[in-house]
Design goal:
Elements (H helix, E strand, L loop, with lengths): L1 E3 L14 E5 L11 E4 L5 E4 L4 E5 L4 E12 L6 E12 L5
Antiparallel strand pairs: 1-2, 2-5, 3-6, 4-5, 6-7
Length: 95
């Protein structure tokens, strides 16, 4: 999995970005949309298309997000399902 975080655009910015996109592109063809089964406590998350989740928080600390993925297994052609729990460390300083 790959996570991308936008960096401050304005030189000398002192505020950290409050948004990230968690990309799940490398897993293969998604069979069903991503389902969030445990929402984060400090922020908010929502599926963004079939292959990513957008996460946002203005509160620093460790947050947890749990979601279910369903994809077509490349070698068998069968549907595969997995539950993923991510711990997200939210910081309050620019990267």
């Amino acid at each position: 999995m790959k996570s991308t975080v936008p960096r401050p655009i304005i030189p000398g910015a002192t505020r950290a970005p409050d948004f990230c996109r968690i990309s799940l592109v490398g897993l293969g063809a998604m069979h069903k949309p991503i389902q969030i089964v445990q929402k984060p406590r400090l922020g908010e998350a929502a599926p963004s298309g079939r292959y990513s989740i957008d996460y946002r928080s203005k509160v620093a600390g460790t947050d947890t997000l749990t979601f279910v993925l369903s994809w077509i297994h490349a070698s068998t052609g069968r549907e595969a399902t997995g539950t993923v729990t991510m711990n997200i460390q939210v910081v309050d300083a620019p990267l």
